[in-house]
Amino acid sequence: MQRLAYIPLLIIALISSVVFIVIKVRTPKCAGLNFAVPLSGRVDELLSFVDSTPVRSVSRLWDFGDSSTATEGTTTHRYKRPGKYIVSLTINGTCKDLQQIEIVPKPALQIQLAQIQGPAGDVYAGDRISLTELTPDGTEWEWAFGESGKVDAKTKDVSHIYTTTGYKKISVFVTTPSGKLSGTYTVNIKNRDVGTKAQMLTPKDIAGAMKPTGAAKKKLFETKLTAFLTANDIGARQKLHNEMRELVCSPQIHVLWITPWLKKNKNMTFDDFCVEVMHNKDAYNITEQTVTFDDAKDCVNDVRLKMKAK
Asked: The whole model's pTM is what?
């Protein structure tokens, strides 16, 4: 009978041990809680938050300190305002740890402007002013002098004459490999003689002052010459002939016309050359075009053309 009395006690002890073991296995472990939070970031920057805790987790809860939460193991977040925030991660509802992150404002937007070099000293009505745009990798330019309401020039170096006094705002747009830049330049146009009206120039005076010079003038002649030779309309050729005459030193400058299918080349004056081309209805196929420019006189003084063999 005494032996039987111990049996219930043994059974109760075994049951208690089993229950204790089961409860111990299911209890969440907080050891090894590990998650990564950036030390700092910028406003609106996409930041990553990673949970590397080795314990098997049933649930996660991120609290980013700005009333925002997430439940993924690895997640991202953007902060809308600068400041210091406490980020917490809670695993399985009980294991919790905290880390701090500092959010700084966005960096100021860096805007690159076109740089204009203008006249030094006083500028008077009737004077021609010269300007240049200094961006080293510029490829195209659009200038507006503030009077016509449209683009006035499309070269790196420009000049202009103002006929009235006052502050004038000059604008330029520059195309570069990385995008477009813009810039402005303000010039104060004064009266040459105090108490008198500014000198008023005729449209012819202004047009003459804005004509291209140097390399730009040579390039303009080459462009018009190509158009003249490839045009098949006599009216267009006549117009181009008159425009080219303004760019040559004299209508009598020498033109060498190399024609492979003839026994000898043609040597003629510029005007005679233009007349012969205008009487031919067909376009000319030029393989070589050489224009010689007289820098001292600022005009074209010789032309050499080579035709394609028939």
From this structure: 0.35
